[in-house]
Write a structure and sequence with these properties.
By secondary structure, this protein is an alpha+beta fold. The chain has 3 domains: 2-160, no CATH class; 183-247; 254-378, Histidine kinase-like ATPase, C-terminal domain (Heat Shock Protein 90). The chain is built from 9 helices and 7 strands; from the N terminus they run H-H-H-H-H-H-H-E-E-H-E-E-H-E-E-E. A 5-stranded mixed β-sheet has the order 1-3-4-6-5, covered by helices on one side. Helix 1 (2-36) runs antiparallel to helix 2 (42-70) and helix 8 runs antiparallel to helix 9 (340-349). It binds adenosine-5'-triphosphate and magnesium ion. The site of magnesium ion has 5 residues, from helix 8. It comes from Nonomuraea glycinis. Keywords: ATP-binding, Kinase, Membrane, Nucleotide-binding, Phosphoprotein, Transferase, Transmembrane, Transmembrane helix, Two-component regulatory system. Pfam families: HATPase_c, HisKA_3. Its EC number is 2.7.13.3. Residues 189-252 form the Signal transduction histidine kinase subgroup 3 dimerisation and phosphoacceptor domain.
């Protein structure tokens, strides 16, 4: 099935890109018409915004298709750059889309034309040369199909993804700061809720039970009420312990990042190969972010992948901590489909880190997380 898709996809994609290339021409003409009619006021503005809406829909589809071809997500550009980049892509795609199909078609047609040139009167050497030309042209035409298909996807990634200029970098940092503040606020809200619904509720019930015991004269009743209060105190303690664990898991404090990830891998119902080589420990906030990222990635493997095995690889080199979590499962991981992968991205962006999701349909899946950090604390040896 996968092999059939690999054969069918490139020519279908090239054909579709030629069609969308023609659509890009139409949209460019309509955009020009909209721009020219802007001085007319209302109708001009309406035409322009409608055409820009159609261009956005087309570029959205192309971004998704290119992401599928490349096997990784293509982020959207910053809203400020978006329209300019989309119009630039329309202009490039209007030429490249049809041109790729035409060039492949021309090469294969040339081969067909030579087939017709071969006649019985040709001598042996002419026939041999013509046959060689046919084979060469057919091979070039067929090999060009997947190459051009990937090239078009890369072009879409370059033009429809975020700009990598200094301005883009400043914007990314501004956004990551906002994401960090958001993540922080969400975390505070979660702790507030957990305290409110957990320990606080237990303590209230304990106070009420003890209040009843205070005014009770029957010793048996008092004993029963004190037992209830004792149970509530135990539950409040358990809730507080869970809450603290969620903030900074004890295993992380005791055994460091490597030990904590190994412990998380052991809890995964699928066999996980763990390969960690860290000469020292990162700072605690980084350890915490990477640990929770690895834990969520492994939870996803267990929940969604249907894999037979998974792997975790953690390295530090050139001032960058790299964590990869992969599996041989069905693929199709999409950060937009849940809150877990988006949460990892937000968590890492607080440290200027990134998450790349490589998960083509059919698998395998690999999440690559990178964050710049220095290793400072000495390594903890775990027995
Ligand atoms: N390893 C994986 N293999 C296959 N699909 C995956 C994998 N990881 C994630 N997915 C897909 O990507 C989607 C998004 O994952 P994400 O972790 O963001 O959300 P979730 O696990 O569904 O919910 P939660 O918000 O509780 O984490 C999942 O719903 C699942 O369809
Ligand atoms: Mg998840």
């Amino acid at each position: 099935m996968r092999r059939i898709r690999l054969i069918v996809e490139p020519p279908t994609g090239l054909l579709l890109n030629a069609v969308t290339g023609v659509a890009a021409w139409v949209l460019l003409v309509l955009l020009a018409a909209g721009a020219v009619s802007l001085p007319l006021g209302g109708p001009g503005r309406r035409l322009l915004s409608r055409v820009l809406g159609m261009a956005r829909a087309l570029t959205g589809v192309q971004r998704a298709r290119a992401a599928q071809v490349l096997g990784h997500e293509i982020l959207e550009p910053h809203p400020q750059d978006r329209t300019a980049r989309e119009v630039a892509w329309l202009a490039v795609h209007a030429v490249v889309g049809p041109a790729c199909l035409v060039s492949v078609g021309a090469t294969l047609s040339a081969a067909m034309a030579i087939v017709r040139l071969r006649t019985a009167e040709n001598g042996l050497s002419v026939t041999l040369n013509l046959s060689l030309a046919i084979v060469a042209l057919t091979a070039i035409g067929l090999a060009a199909v997947p190459l051009l298909h990937t090239l078009q996807a890369r072009l879409a990634e370059r033009l429809l993804g975020p700009a990598s200029s200094l301005a883009g970098r400043v914007r990314a940092l501004t956004e990551s700061r906002a994401a960090a503040v958001d993540a922080q606020a969400a975390e505070v809200r979660r702790i507030e809720r957990d305290l409110h619904d957990g320990a606080q509720a237990r303590l209230i019930s304990m106070r009420m039970t003890l209040g009843l015991a205070k005014s009770e004269s029957d010793p048996d009743q008092v004993r029963e009420l004190v037992r209830e209060a004792w149970e509530s105190a135990g539950q409040a303690l358990a809730d507080l312990r869970d809450l603290v664990r969620g903030i900074h898991p004890p295993v992380l404090a005791d055994r460091g990042l490597a030990g904590a990830i190994q412990a998380a891998a052991l809890l995964c119902p699928i066999p996980v190969r763990v390969d960690i080589d860290l000469p020292a420990r990162p700072e605690p906030p980084v350890e915490s972010a990477v640990y929770f990222a690895a834990a969520e990635a492994l939870t996803n493997v267990a929940k969604h992948s249907a894999a037979t095995w998974a792997w975790v690889r953690l390295r530090h080199s050139g001032g960058v901590l790299r964590l990869a979590v992969g599996d041989d499962g069905r693929g199709g991981a999409r950060p937009s489909a849940g809150t877990g992968l988006g949460g990892i991205r937000r968590r890492l962006s607080a440290f200027d880190g990134t998450l790349i999701v490589h998960s083509p349909p059919g698998g395998p899946t690999e999440l690559t997380m990178e964050l710049p950090c220095a290793l400072s604390s000495p390594k903890i040896s775990h027995s």
